[in-house]
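sorry to bug you again but im stuck and you know this stuff better than me. below you get a single protein, a line of residues and a line of whole numbers that encode the local backbone shape. mainly i need to know what kind of three dimensional shape the backbone takes. anything you notice is useful, everything is just below:

***
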Amino acid sequence: MVRLFSVPFSWILLLLFLPSAKAMPSPHPLAPAPDSMVYTDLQPCAYPFTLVEGKWEGAGADTLLRLAGESRFFLLGEYHGDADIAALTAALLPALKPMGYRHFAVETGPFSAHKLERLFRKGGPQAVVDFYRSQFSATGDIPIPFFDGREDLVFLEAALENSYGLWGLDQEFLGGFSFLLEDLFAAAGSPEAHQAAMQALQRRVLAYYAANAADPETEVYDQLMADTAAQALMDMLAQRNADARARVQAIRATCRIYHNWKADRMANLSGRTEWMKRQFAGHWQARTAETQDPGRVLVKMGGMHLQKGFTGNACYELGNMLHELACLRGEHSTHIGFAVRYYVDDDGSIGDNLSYNSTWIREMQPLLAQGRPDRWVLVDMRAARRLWINGRKRPGRALRDRIEGYDWILIPPAVRDTTPHYR
């Protein structure tokens, strides 16, 4: 079956960041207006490259590494679940290390990031796989997002082997309450007086996951927040030390953010954005307090979170904060989005998003037409911005959003899903 995107449906909106290839005539019969931006306008600022087994070759790769060397914050605004983006990240991490990159910020919760790091340092990738499998067996859900593919463990290993600090910036994940409560109990010193209460809570939490599997409207986070015994236990554990207190705050913030996904969408978006900004600021302030040079930061998150300006999530997100922070320091941030043209379909054939006749595709055609099925293409959105403003070449709305939000767009070769390691 053909499909527009080779990712889960819940991420389709984030796939406003799609692939590239050699310029080709538009497959759509509608002729553009004389002043419309067309694919030939972007040809001179599209730079192809290959990445094979960690080896870079081509003008796009040279440009990508040069941009990283010029930036304090290097932002990869990805769409999730693509094996090629995982491979790109695994190649970037060691390449950026000599440039002074010391921190790797990702779209997980802060304590999820700690968990991944501890597991990997203790037992390598197999320890992470065993953890995911045990949690998935118990809850029916993955415990931590965006590290659930085999390819993801390759870039996690590259980060830790190159001594990056792993910064988790997002709320914790709705599939992780079981291990989060276990780790909270351990952080509080595993007080004997509360052992039985914690064991009882663990049983109830697993029952909440089972109830959610039977009825998706029975949300685990709402049940946890309504569990007065759980809340009382967390209050007691929070008094034990600062680490336990921070974990309780993270669990409760996670429940609120997820609850607001249905109850108050604007509160959900603003609350999650505020949480991300606070997590980054906490890490950044700690590093700048330690040394005059806090190092450079590679950030890999969903694309909309790393855009400049006002986003489709109706707020100024983390990317805008990092852009302004770099400006205040007299430095640079580089904002890279992704766009998908080609994809590997379920039967192994190569699909082309340009074959779909929709308003969104037509508006994105000047960019997507740069994509190639067998290589990456890096497209300069700053040059497109100059064409728009100085040359009065009008982009369609979808392309305008890419031009406004990003400095560059990466178009991968034919998109391949990551391979789940937990089942």
In short: The first helix runs from residue 39 to 42. The chain has two domains: 9-172+277-411, 177-263. The first strand starts at residue 46 and ends at 52.
